[in-house]
Amino acid sequence: MSSPFFSTESGLSAYGWTDELEQSFEPYRAAGLTPARIARVDRGLCDAITADGSVRADISALYSPDPLQAPCTGDWAALRHGADPALVALLPRRTAIVRSSASRSSHGQVLAANVDTVAIAVSLAGALDAARLERLLTLAWESGAQPLIVLTKADLATDADAVQDEARALAPGVDILVTSVATSQNIDVLTALLSGTTVLLGSSGAGKSTLGNALLGDELLATGTVRAADGKGRHTTVRRELVPLPGGGVLIDTPGLRGISLYGGADGLEQVFAEIEELSEHCRFGDCAHNSEPGCAVQAAIQAGELAERRLASYRKLQRENAWAASRTDARLRGERTDRQKAITSHLRATYRFRDRQT
């Protein structure tokens, strides 16, 4: 049985290999290395796609204490062939979806790399969680990719149009598509919209894997039912994996995101809350906190019913979270610099002591 990760149609070009990547890879090729794209990472190994097929490769040479530097699904890498294939270098990432690590440490976690479209799956089987959608949109915009909202399970919706309108108000400039795998509603439209590398993001139970299988035309991704009590899924997708789409491009499925903490999302926040950013430019004071300051354009818009107070509260919350993540990162970097300086000082002292003993 052929690997679900490999398509023989166009070699690596089917996985996003470009002339620019080829040029940047020349030094590696001259060293006898082969380009590969990481399809899945699992316990120190990965499934890597090459022009000749899928190989299982060791990634221990790429170990880094910083999770941001760790190999990730979607990365392009230099592969050393042989009895024990191994990845020895990563190519610079064009885009990367990054969130704060689940441990709430000062490190970030890369969910997927070199992504063109972030398809955010939102189930129509329940009420829209506006705050959660804003978080996912911030994550998507910050990555450098283009977000797309896919409203799933339209066959179970009570008022799909109302939810679509609500989502549109939260996501100016973002395409929104109502779909149903059960009835095939707009699946062909979604297929036509996707190109390059697409990643599926969303909560457990949003229907990501079911949607992914519909796009792939095969049951390649694990699916499961949602809990009747709260409508949440059971994490049927346990790791990120990249698979080729029949019509071209590739799809990355991800586990359901229960915790979505921002990591350096300032640009993403500006995109998601563009109306607040624009209103802020008309406040009387440049450092207006949008509380009770005179001449606050944001508060004036709330009083006039042009801006929801919930929207401002969500914006502030994400700003605080982003600032906290930035401060933790700065503190960690300062600590690392201090540790390096202490190590240098200790080494110098040991050198002086040794020199003194020789005299």
From TrEMBL:
Source species, domain of life: Bacteria
UniProt subcellular location: Cytoplasm
Ligand binding (GTP): 152-155, 202-210
Cofactor-binding details, from the entry: Binds 1 zinc ion per subunit.
Binding site for Zn(2+): 283, 288, 290, 296
EC number: 3.6.1.-
Presence of the UniProt keyword rRNA-binding in the record: yes
CP-type G domain mapped to chain residues: 105-260
Enzyme class: hydrolase
One Pfam family hit: RsgA_GTPase
Cofactor(s) required for function per UniProt: Zn(2+)
Annotated keywords: Cytoplasm, GTP-binding, Hydrolase, Metal-binding, Nucleotide-binding, Ribosome biogenesis, RNA-binding, rRNA-binding, Zinc
Main location: cytoplasm
Positions of the EngC GTPase domain: 113-258
Subunit structure: Monomer. Associates with 30S ribosomal subunit, binds 16S rRNA.
Cited function: One of several proteins that assist in the late maturation steps of the functional core of the 30S ribosomal subunit. Helps release RbfA from mature subunits. May play a role in the assembly of ribosomal proteins into the subunit. Circularly permuted GTPase that catalyzes slow GTP hydrolysis, GTPase activity is stimulated by the 30S ribosomal subunit.
PANTHER family from the UniProt entry: SMALL RIBOSOMAL SUBUNIT BIOGENESIS GTPASE RSGA (PTHR32120:SF10)
Family classification: Belongs to the TRAFAC class YlqF/YawG GTPase family. RsgA subfamily.
The protein, known as: Small ribosomal subunit biogenesis GTPase RsgA
Protein's organism: Nonomuraea mangrovi
